[in-house]
Amino acid sequence: MLKMIRLVVCCATVLAAASAAAQPTPPATGRDVLARMRAKYAGDWYKTLMFTQITTIRRPDGRDTVQTWYETLRYTPEHGTQLRIDVAPLSNGNGSISTWDSTWVLRADTLAAVRAGGNPFVNLIEGVYVQSVEESVRQLAPLGVDLSKLRSAHWNGMAVWVVGSSDPADTTSSQFWVEDQHLMVVRMVINNGSGRPPLDVHLGALERCGKGWLATRVDILSGGQRRQLEEYRDWKCDVPIDAQLFNPMAGKSAKHWAR
Fold first, then answer.
1. What is the per-residue pLDDT across 191-233, written as a single tens digit (0 to 9) for each?
2. Which terminal CB of the chain, N or C, has fewer other CB atoms within 10 Å?
3. Domain locations in the chain?
4. How far from 77 is each of 48, 80, 82, CA to CA, in Å?
5. Architecture per CATH, 29-235
6. Tell me: the pLDDT tens digits for 233-253?
């Protein structure tokens, strides 16, 4: 009996040690979180994405305007992540092309303006999974996220890592929240230092897309009020896209998938 007890204790000790060894070491910094996001889908994340977006915009007078946007995203090593948005009807030729740091405004299928400052989402919804961690860190710099600050939390029933904040009472510093299962961003707080309330962006309704995932509902709030709602439909990943869609000088010669 004594030998049996020792055997049971020994087995339990070995199992406990094995279980502890199987648990991943928690990330220590935001850079560690970015590295995990990159490693989880290395070589598998989609390089192109297209979808139709129903966009509800809250006007200053409290009324809602509903628009249909056609969004096209791609990643190439030469150009990084690019996002094109066309506002319906396509015949009007109005939209934009954005990277993480620049935006080209299109009016009547003609380049109308080039602006410094890009789309703050393209890095965290695409770039982080397909480019080097160093590049993702560089692209996050304009948002002012302090990668040295990190805490664990729960969000809508999910375990998350909060990058950019170490204090649960901090609701205004620039930060992004990454759920621990799929390593997808489910919340972003963007403080542009303008003195206005920061944007509080909630990303939900995760759906499979290729070998990756896509948040198909995005709520953008400011001062506790919803300013914009984005609902995605008919998404497709890793399908051919005409490269001319990302040439702001291409005009109507670019073949749009929604025409």
1. 987 778 999 999 999 999 999 999 999 999 999 999 999 999 9
2. N
3. 29-235
4. 13, 5, 11
5. Clam (2.50)
6. 999 999 999 999 999 999 999
